[in-house]
Design goal:
Blueprint lengths: L1 E5 L6 H12 L3 E5 L9 E5 L9 H12 L3 E5 L6 H8 L3 E3 L4 H10 L8 E5 L2 E4 L29 E3 L2 E2 L10 H5 L4 E2 L2 H13 L5 E3 L16 H15 L4 E2 L2 E2 L6 H10 L3 E7 L3 H6 L6 H13 L3 E8 L6 H13 L4 E6 L7 H8 L22 H16 L8 H29 L2
Parallel strand pairs: 1-2, 1-3, 3-4, 4-5, 8-11, 11-12, 13-14, 14-15, 15-16
Antiparallel strand pairs: 5-6, 6-7, 9-10
Helix pairs in contact: 1-4, 6-7, 7-8, 11-13, 13-14
């Protein structure tokens, strides 16, 4: 059986895992980050962004494949909203949640009827079968493309999964809704075998996948620094410490041992999801930490000679001007080595999506026209805050950026682009979920 696994734009780790499973079941599998000219008899699309539901190239490919009599299945984070996927892209079925226990039955039966963890349309009615309970993470090696070494995702060729689940309850994040809040960790030997396989295929830098790397082998309400250190040490032995990163971590999931290991066995960067300098907004986001805890974590990293990057979210539906000013003050008081800004995006199945739908547009910063100093630029309040915080953050870095006209234009266009795309997401959410 010929099968194509397609992940538009980048080879996602999930697509490679599904490719490896299908290959182990005897299928002839090819992995693609661009759409093939000819669809194979069975196509699995791994879609990781709500924006994919609006992509005309994806719509055209699926329509062409199904018209030719081929079968198209869709999985990935977009499956959190199967009604939207079925309505917008019209595949044969959606794989809901974790795909490993679902794709082999789909391949074997050739139909989603009665298969747990699937959603599909029959005679105009959407059928959503019960999800498959969380499974162990034992599986074959992923299908690794020959050109994996050419891929760059935040500085790494690939982000390798070490565990699933997250203790957090951040309102904007799908992870605890997708994988649950119980930590399921992979065996270290399996992870290291995978690292070797990626290295042998040409990967030059590997990273631990997004989330909180130090939750690896978390048990009985406690971090397990020893297991995390052994993991980083093993990865560094294979790749070299300058070719390993473990960036994403919660500020309340660090210790001296963990930070020492990150300095010793990785490129020496830590990435905190800071999001806001306002404790009121942090509480509404469900971050579970305060701005004071974030400041202490940054200082701890400095004491361990680590570089620190931070992400910030602007335009949260309830963000007031004073909340935003507190974020600017936090950035000025606690200089970071790099800063990333984004406008709040209501991902399906998250509390933020519910809040966004409850918030009138005339009270939502994403839609309210900006009337302050950037008024001539015709921005919304969220877009203006993105632009302003990007400029402010660049100047407040430990090594400030020289803001020439090109950087100014880049920040401005990115703010407009994010605002435009997220408003389209709002439109789809309202179409399917506004009561």
């Amino acid at each position: 059986m010929q099968v194509q696994v397609i992940s538009p734009g980048i080879y996602t780790y999930g697509a490679m895992v599904i490719g490896g499973l299908l290959r182990s079941a005897g299928a002839s599998v090819t992995l693609h980050r661009r759409f093939p000219v000819e669809p194979s008899p069975i196509v699995f699309l791994s879609l990781y962004s709500t924006q994919h539901l609006l992509d005309p190239a994806i719509r055209e490919f699926i329509a062409r494949a199904r018209t030719a009599g081929n079968t198209c299945y869709i999985g990935g984070p977009v499956s959190a909203a199967p009604e939207m996927v079925l309505g917008e892209l019209v595949p044969d079925a959606v794989v809901i949640g974790e795909g490993e226990p679902v794709v082999i039955p789909l391949l074997s039966r050739g139909s989603p009827d009665g298969i747990p963890g699937t959603a599909y349309t029959r005679n105009g009615e959407i059928i959503i079968n019960p999800p498959v309970p969380p499974q162990t993470l034992d599986r074959p090696l992923p299908l690794i493309p020959d050109d994996i070494g050419t891929q760059d995702v935040r500085g790494a060729n690939v982000y390798i999964e070490t565990h699933r689940g997250c203790l957090g309850a951040c309102s904007f994040c799908q992870v605890p809704r997708f994988f649950g809040r119980t930590i399921r960790s992979r065996e270290i030997d399996d992870i290291l075998a995978e690292v070797r396989a990626f290295r042998d295929k040409g990967a030059r830098r590997v990273s631990i996948s997004g989330g909180t790397g130090s939750l690896y082998q978390y048990r009985d309400g406690k971090l397990n620094p020893g297991a995390f250190i052994a993991l980083l040490s093993g990865m560094a032995e294979i790749m070299g410490s300058r070719n390993v990163s473990a960036p994403d971590i919660r500020v309340d999931c660090i210790s001296d041992e963990i930070l020492d290991a990150i300095r010793k066995y990785t490129i020496g960067w830590v990435f905190f999801g800071i999001e806001s300098g306002s404790d009121r907004i942090l509480n509404q986001m469900g971050k579970g930490v305060t701005s004071s805890q974030v400041a202490d974590a940054i200082e701890s990293c400095r004491q361990h000679h680590l570089a620190v990057a931070g992400s910030f979210i602007v335009g949260y539906p309830t963000e007031e001007p004073d909340d935003y000013e507190q974020t600017k003050t936090f950035i000025a008081d606690h200089p970071l080595d790099d800063i990333f800004v984004s406008i709040a995006e209501p991902l399906p199945s998250t509390p933020l999506a519910s809040l966004a739908l409850r918030t009138p547009r005339e009270a939502n910063p994403l839609f309210v026209p900006h009337t302050g100093e950037y008024r001539p630029l015709n921005l919304t309040e969220a877009e203006a805050r993105f632009f302003d915080l990007s400029l402010h953050g660049a100047m407040c870095r430990t090594r400030p950026l020289l803001l020439a006209g090109q950087a100014y234009d880049t920040f401005l266009e990115e703010g407009r682009k994010q605002g435009r795309e997220i408003r389209l997401v709002y439109g789809i959410l309202e179409k399917y979920y506004r009561k």
